[in-house]
Structure formats: structure tokens, C-alpha cells
Amino acid sequence: MSDISSKSPSDGRAVSFRGGGFAPKSRRWVGFAVFAFLILIAEWGTRSGWISALTLPKPSDVLVTFHELYQSGLLFKHLGLSLGRLVIGAAIGASIGISVGVLIGLFSYIRSGLVPVIAAIFPIPKIALLPLFVIWFGIGEGSKYALIAFGTFTPTVVATYGAVDNVDRTLIRMGQSFGLSWWSIVRKIVLPGAMPGILSGLRISFAIAIILLVAAEMLGAEYGIGAYILEAGSLYDLERLFAGVVILSLLGVLVSGCIGVIERRVLGWRS
After folding, report:
1. What is the separation, in whole angstroms, between the first and last Cα of the chain?
2. Domain range holding 76?
């Protein structure tokens, strides 16, 4: 059967396999090439005067600023505190969000009670709530954790119960017809089926968490990437400002990469 499907009907030549199901292939070098091209364009534009030095610093100068930041030890001091705040706040918000989202997806009474509440708080700009969290939790770390957790919670809830709703009902009915218990259906069918949507929602949630991290650190933080960017901006130090922005971009790439690793491990059954 495999020999027949792999031969061309006209002349018997072998043809490539066409049943890949649109499976994406890794082309990491393309991303690096795009980044390198953009950096070279920026370097050329700033050196030639086509791009004003008042609007964009030379990438080479930003690299020198990185080196100075590394040599002084401030890079790890700012980055370490920011990573700690991000991990703790996002972990709290994501874990609660996934739990509540699964409950909303499984139980009608919880859905009826919580979906209107989630719909009411979801559109609220979380940055606008920062003064309120400062009043509730103080100017220290508590308000930063709370803001990041709350900002991560709402999109995670929406993504999770949407993913649970999108699980194929035919698979659930099949499990019921085979006499699986309610918990077995949830554990073996619903959660694995919802996991792609949950992980996609986490990508968005963690991106929002990084934005809120910067906002929280700009208010009442001595160290952290947000505080570093705020200080550089107040001094109009573009090299330091762009160095901070690049650190945030790398942080976003790191978070996305971690979620990608989880996807490959958890969702290996899809390949």
C-alpha cells in the first residue's frame, strides 16, 4: 500500500510525502537573519546620517552600553529582580487563571456566576489599577506581584475556558460510551484537548505580564528593567534606553522559548 501511494501514476517515479497536515517546520536561521538585517540597516542608517542620532542610537553604541552594564554588575541586579517579580507574579496569575478557566468550562453554575465577572474586569486597563494596588499592598513588592498576577489572570481565564469549550465533543461522547468516569474523561480527553489553547493563551498572558512588570517597576522601584528604562529616559540617554528595551525583547523571546519547550513536551502527541 505504501509503495502504491509513493509512486507517480504516470511514470512510477517516487513523489514526496503529502500527508504532513501542514505541520510547521523549524527555520530558526530565518529569524536570526531578519534580526541581523534590521541591525545592519540601523547601523548603516545612523552612521551615514540617514537616521538622526537624536532618534535612534547606533546599535554598536548600544552594544558598548551592554558591555558596561555587564562589567558593572548592574545587568544581573536589574535583570534578577525583574525576573523574580515576573516569575512570581505570572505564576500566581496563570495558575489561578487556569484553575478558574477549567472550572468555568466544566461546571454550568460556575460559568453562569463567573463569566459576567470576567467579562466586566477583562477590558479594564490593568496599568490603571496600579495606584489602587499600591494603596492595598503598599509601595513594595506586594503591589508589583499583585498587578502582574491580576494582569496575567484575566487573559488566562478567557483562553482556558475557551480552550475547554473547543474540545471535540465527539471524543467526550466516545469516552462516555466506553464507560470512563467523569474524572477520567477530564484528565484524559478534556485537559489534553484544551492544552494547545491554554498554552497559546499563556503566550499572550506572559507578554502582558512583561508590560505590567515595566509599569510596576517605574513606580517605586530602585532596581529592575523598568526602573532602569525610566532613569535612562529621564536623562535622555538613548543608548541606555535602547539597551533596556533590548533586554525586555530578549526577556520576551526567553519566555516564548520556554513555552515552546513546554509545548513540544506536552503536545508531542499531535505530531
Report:
1. 22
2. 54-266
For residue 149, give the C-alpha cell.
498576577
Asked whether residue 13 is domain-assigned, the answer is: no
Q: How far is CA 124 from CA 46, 117, 167, 245, in A?
A: 40, 12, 29, 25
Q: Is residue 43 part of a domain?
A: no
- Helices 191-217 and 225-234 meet at what angle, rounded to 10? 40
Between CA 137 and CA 160, with CA 128 as vertex, the angle to 5 degrees is: 85
pTM of the full structure: 0.80
Other C-beta atoms closer than 10 Å to the C-beta of 228 total 26
Measured distance CA(152)–CA(145) in Å, rounded: 11
* Domain count within the chain: 1
Residues 150-194: pLDDT tens digits?
A: 999 999 999 999 999 998 888 888 888 888 888 999 888 899 899
> Which residue, 110, 208, 97, 211, is CA-closest to 153?
97
- Please report, for the domain that includes residue 246, its CATH number: 1.10.3720.10
- Is 129 within the bounds of a domain? yes
Rounded CA-CA distance 251/81 in Å is 13
Do residues 42 and 238 lie in contact, with contact meaning Cβ atoms separated by under 8 Å? Answer: no
Within-domain flag for 11: no
